[in-house]
Structures are given as structure tokens and as C-alpha cells.
């Protein structure tokens, strides 16, 4: 029976890097029945939500509000009446200039139970990702945090400019880029040392991070010259000088590199997170989507009959996932699969099979259908050849038919199990297509021929200086059909190898 009143969780999303989300925060997102999120919440975090979870955007950025605060408060009350678990995902920490206190008060007044999950504030993480410690024994023993963005309804500023100017130690300003020049001038007039080191960090703790170093007097000019804007953190103090030694993030191999990931939305995470960990600014632009096969009845029948085959052949990780989703809806135990031998096209497919406790009997070093056939030929004597052997080939609807034709030539008895279909991705909730067209990219990755075909169908022109990297020879061949020559190809045709290849390119500049 549905509870009469659900609980709202005010969760801090942290400064930008999804890996800085707290364990409790992630667990609540995964559990959420409804997700209400801000502009500064990472897209990767939205992907943690369970299928079917409604996601409501209420972000505010550069004066553009998707929803006024009063309406957000009302929305949260409404969500609590409808859902057991509503997660209100807020950038940084809910109570550090995040208006979480207002939302909590509104929930209290409405009799709605709520909890707060603190997040890492950009006031600390932003400087840290720019190599600036907010405290340092050689420079200071305290720091002050203030906001440059105040309530528009106030007739007078509530900022204690003289107090801030007189404060010792590091000074950190959040949400003040629109009035940066005025604030710096006001601080100087109140006694702030004009030559004190200062820095501005835009999109802190993300691959889009940019920063400038100057003084209090010259910071506004430096920001305008370099085109920095909101969201940004401003730091004032001698600790800024430590950035030359402590800028660990800027020394990552892919720092400042904008990389496009074209995998399906559900598969992009592993590649994106690996690239982000190396400092890349990842744009997820899924070109394909995996859907059930056209003939679900035939697929279901093939899965039911699968224990009766001598061999099961899997062409891709997607095939493995879809096959076993269906298998466990019919059978309760993996042992019911019987004694079939297993073949896989490539280590990525083998790794997916291993999740089910299955090791492969045949797998080529190169993830290519032709290599799988060659491997069958090389190892044929070990298992008595393939003539008159029953085989179930699990693959996608639009896959090449090399495996079927070649095994049939060798007198195997081959049935097909079409486990999924690949269709164009029509949604672009993050605005990646527009961003790619407007800002360009340094590198774009392709992980299958399907991603190539559907990317080209989008009609997006590749930026002139954009490099292209392929996961393997089949994908590379498809790229060349469109007149695109990849600058590199992953030697082992899997995601870890693709990441290593990209990192090597980044190190070469």
C-alpha cells in the first residue's frame, strides 16, 4: 500500500566531477522514484536513476530560470504526495548558497518529511582542482566564503564588503561573475590589497575547467580577455601562488581535451568515466539506441531452445546482455544452459559472459567475425570440428552475416538468435549536438559501424581539426567508406584499449 506521504532528500551533487558524489547520494539517486535536478548536476548522475524514473529539470543559469524558487518548493511538496522517494539534486552542497534551507523550510511547513545529504562544495573543490589549497600553513589559517549573487528583491546589499576586505586568509566568492568587476573594486575601496593574488575557475572539477590567474585589481580584465563566465569560483589570497606546484588536474594526460563519445546512452558510462578520470571534457552524443528485435517471438523461442545446442556464439556484449535478460526470465539457474561450448567475438564480449560465470572456448585476438572463423579452423581438432554440430549464433539485427555463411560452408548447423536491434538515437537531452556544432571538439570516438552510420546520418560536420579514433578494423573500414581516416585504432578492440590509445594521443599533444 502506498504511503500517504513520501520523503524528499535534498542531495548535494558536489562540484561537478560525478566521482565526488557521496556514496549515500548515489544510493538515493539509484533508489529515487522521482528526480528533481539543477543545471549544475552532472549528466552522469542522471544516468544512475532507475529506468522509468521521472527527471524534472528546475535549473537556474545566467538569469534563465526553468522554474522560480517558489514553484520548485511547491513541486517538491507535490512530488512527496506522489512518490515514496523524491531526490532533489542540487549542485555543490544544499546549504552552501544552494537555497536548500528554503526548500527544507517549505517541506517542513507542508508537513513533508525530508533529509539532507551534504555535498562537497565548489568553494573547496574548485580551488583544489585548480591547484589552490584554501588553507596553507605558510600563508593562512582561515578562509572566508561569500556569494556575489544576492536576492534580487533586496534594495541594499547584505554583503559586508568592509568585513570581507578586512578578513585575513583566503577569500572565496561563489556565483559572482556577473558583478565581478564591481565586487573587486568595492573590496579595493574597502581596503583590500589590490595586488593580492587572485584566480577565477570556470566549470571547476569538470573536463570543461578553465582558469585565469591575476590580482584583485586585474582579475576582471583577465576574465574578460579569456572569455570566462559562470559558473565560476573566485579565489583571493596568497594561496593562489601555490597553483604552479599543486595543479595536479591540469597535468592529467587529457586535460583540456574535448572528446565526443558516440556509444549508446546506457553504454557510454564506462568510456566517459575513464576519459574524465584522465581530465577530458567528455560530450556524450549517443548516435544509436539498442531496442528489442523486430521479431520478439522468434527471439524468445531461440532463448528457450538454447540449452539444446552444442555451441553458443556471441557477437557482441549487447547480445550477451539481451540474451541473458531473456534467459533468466525463463530459467532460474545458469546450469540450465546445459553443456554448450561458448564462442565470443572479442574480449569485450568475453568479459560480459564472465559476469554470468561463463568462460569462452573460442575467442579471436581481434574482435572481427573473420578472425573468429579462423580461430574455429585453428582449434577444430580440439573439439572434433564443426561439421554437423548445432550452433546458436546470438547477434544484432543488422549485423554482418559472415559467421553464418562461413560456418554453414563448414557444414555446421547454424540457427540465428537475433537479440536486439540498433536504431538511431533521436533524443539529445544534454544539448550535445548543438554544443558540438557551436564549440567543436578535439577528438571523436567510434565504437562500432552503427555509431559511424548514424552519426553521419545526423548531418553534423566534423570540425576541421577534430581527430577520429576507432575501436577496431571493422569500424575503421566503415569510417573510410565516408572518406574519414582515423588517426588511431585500438589495438585490442575494447574500451580499455581505446582509452589507452586516446591517452597516448593526448600525451603527444
Describe this structure in words.
- With 509 residues, the protein is α/β, with parallel strands linked by helices.
- The chain folds into 4 domains: 114 residues, Cobalt-precorrin-4 Transmethylase, domain 1; 126 residues, 2-Layer Sandwich (Methyltransferase, Cobalt-precorrin-4 Transmethylase, Domain 2), CATH 3.30.950.10; 114 residues, Rossmann fold (3-Layer(aba) Sandwich); 133 residues, Rossmann fold (3-Layer(aba) Sandwich), CATH 3.40.50.
- Helices cover 34% and strands 20% of the residues.
- A 5-stranded parallel beta sheet has the order 3-2-6-1-7, sandwiched between helices. A 5-stranded mixed beta sheet has the order 8-9-12-10-11, sandwiched between helices. It has a 5-stranded parallel beta sheet with strand order 14-13-20-21-22, with helices on both faces.
- β2, α2 and β3 form a beta-alpha-beta unit.
- The mean pLDDT is 91.
Describe, in short, the structure shown.
With 509 residues, the protein is an alpha/beta fold.
Q: How many separate domains?
A: 4
The tally of helices reads 19
Amount of beta strand: 15-25%
CA-based shape: elongated
Q: If you compute it from the alpha carbons, what radius of gyration comes out, rounded to the nearest whole angstrom?
A: 27 Å
Chain-averaged pLDDT: 91
CATH topology of the largest domain: Rossmann fold
CATH class assignment of the largest domain? Alpha Beta
**Number of strand segments:** 22
- What spatial order of strands do you see in the largest sheet? 3-2-6-1-7
* Content-based structural category: alpha/beta
Instruction: Give the low-pLDDT segments.
Output: none
Give the N-to-C terminal Cα separation.
Answer: 59 Å
How would you sum up the major sheet? 5 strands, parallel
Helix content: 25-40%
CATH architecture of the largest domain: 3-Layer(aba) Sandwich
